[in-house]
Amino acid sequence: RIRDVSGNSFVQNPTPFHVDPQCVKTHFNRNFADKKLLGFVADDANEEESTPFQSYDDAKNEVLKFDTDCPNCGTPTQTCMKPTDIPYFTTVILMCTTCDACGWKSNEIKSGAAIRDHGCKLTILIEKDIDLARDVLKSDACSMSIPELDMEVGPGALSGRFTTVEGLLIATRDQLKEQGDFFLIGDSRSEAENEQMKKLLDNFEQILRLQKKVRLVLDDPTGNSYIQSLNAPMDDSRLKKEFYVRTNEQNDELGLNDMKTENYSQLEIINEYE
């Protein structure tokens, strides 16, 4: 049994392409004695003192943790949370949960800003390698479409994520393939639908290889989605940004119609017995 506080030890796996059943590797958080052994704290220090946050920037540089229960098995675990700034845009909250008991993992991203006054529609033309490498922030309320494929993905399909254009396309392709394998089997299977799904997946492969030029459209009524500009803060010829006024239905879905944020003291008190 090897316990290495530096994390630099290694035991060779005789079958490197498979999991070694004879070796179990676990990670742990260093205690105060381990940090003193590595020289991270002074030798004459008696107790570990936590440094209070002096500003919001100090909090942004720290990975915050809070206790939660694993949604898969119910075992107590921790969720890590860290604010990060996207240049020329806003602050987002990165959240990650890993359960050591069942191995369940979750990555989630939340906007650190309020719902904006106008919705946004972002259109990116994918024709070069650099376009696939652009950073993308997709909020929970953002829908995605590719007009050339006559395809639209609703806001709840991929949830919120911070990735690249290529990563977003791969996630969409994988989810379509997974759902296609589930629905296009058994009695519900249709040859026409099967061929249509196969053609759609082939088109995704062509897009990822830059053999097919398409437009990727993100429509976010909250205005909190983002595609990296190559010429920021100047205009990007392959990135189109449009801002629009939300419809009453969109405001209702976001819960804005029933929201009152000012003059709380003027709210009328309703007597339920009258």
TrEMBL record:
GO terms for cellular component: nucleus. It comes from the Eukaryota. InterPro entries: Znf_ZPR1 (IPR004457), ZPR1 (IPR040141), ZPR1_A/B_dom (IPR042451), ZPR1_jr_dom (IPR056180), ZPR1_Znf1/2 (IPR042452). Residues 68-229 form the Zinc finger ZPR1-type domain. Keywords: Metal-binding, Zinc, Zinc-finger. SMART domains: Zpr1. It holds the Pfam family Zn_ribbon_ZPR1. GO terms for molecular function: zinc ion binding. Gene3D superfamilies: ZPR1, A/B domain, ZPR1, zinc finger domain. Belongs to the ZPR1 family. NCBIfam families: ZPR1_znf. This is Zpr1 domain-containing protein. It comes from Onchocerca flexuosa. The lineage of its organism: Eukaryota, Metazoa, Ecdysozoa, Nematoda, Chromadorea.
